[in-house]
Amino acid sequence: MAVPSPDHPCWQKLASGALSRMKTKHLGTQLLIKNIERSSDPVPVKAKEIHAFFAKWERGLSAEVQQLPYL
Asked: Model-level pTM greater than 0.85?
């Protein structure tokens, strides 16, 4: 499964708090989740950051990428 496009609504949903429900053992993803939770950036900025992370690390995050549309 490929990472959804940057304009997919899942990114806004994830940036609004759904990312904390992701199940992952990947340390980098866990750190991203904590950083997003603590960030005071607006939702669109968070959404862009989340998308960039998953687009960059897509190959190593197949289990996490599969969860994206369902969180």
From this structure: yes
